[in-house]
Design a protein that fits this description.
Blueprint lengths: L2 H10 L7 E5 L6 E8 L2 E8 L14 E9 L1 E8 L10 E8 L3 E4 L3 E3 L2 E2 L5 E10 L12 E2 L2 H16 L2
Helix pairs in contact: 1-2
């Protein structure tokens, strides 16, 4: 088993008090995000739900990050801006990512996530540092996840990680 996967399994075993969670329901797709700190990084586990009759949200992040898909697959439209503008740049490419795919993005890259042919996608995101970019304002309907919801998601992640 690869060292990164071993680290994620170890982190999934941390006490619940070390985890936070947010159910993101105001953009497309819906995402459950739980996170903890490890060394100088924020480690996020994402459960991404299929999109039903909606367009995927094209957005940047206010941080540079690295992502690994643990289970599932998705299409992603990618665009790039030279500055930290809030205006979406044109889409320059469309890529397909599946279980085991890894990628990194800088804060000047915009993207979509569109799950493909699966009930959900599990991914792990490592955030190294916040940048000058402002986060898109889409926080109206997000809900803090209960410890029970976080615990269930940690169980699901551990099960998927053990299969890699």
């Amino acid at each position: 088993m690869d060292e990164t996967i071993e680290l994620y399994i170890k982190l999934a075993g941390l006490p619940l008090k070390d985890w936070n969670g947010l159910a993101i329901r105001n953009s497309s797709p819906n995402v459950d995000r739980i996170w903890t700190k490890h060394e100088n990084k924020k480690i996020c586990f994402h459960k991404i739900y299929p999109i039903k009759n909606r367009k995927p949200f094209y957005h940047p992040h206010p941080w540079d990050f690295k992502s690994k898909i643990i289970f599932g697959s998705y299409w992603s439209d990618i665009g790039y801006s030279d500055d930290l503008t809030t205006e979406p740049p044109p889409v320059s490419t469309r890529i397909f990512l599946n279980t085991g795919s890894e990628y990194s993005m800088k804060s000047n890259v915009w993207h979509t996530v569109e799950p493909f042919n699966c009930d959900f996608v599990f991914s792990v995101v490592e955030i190294s540092s916040k940048t000058q970019r402002e986060a898109p304002q889409t926080c109206q309907n997000n809900k803090i996840m209960s410890k029970e919801q976080i615990n269930k998601m940690l169980f699901e992640f551990t099960f998927k990680l053990d299969k890699l």
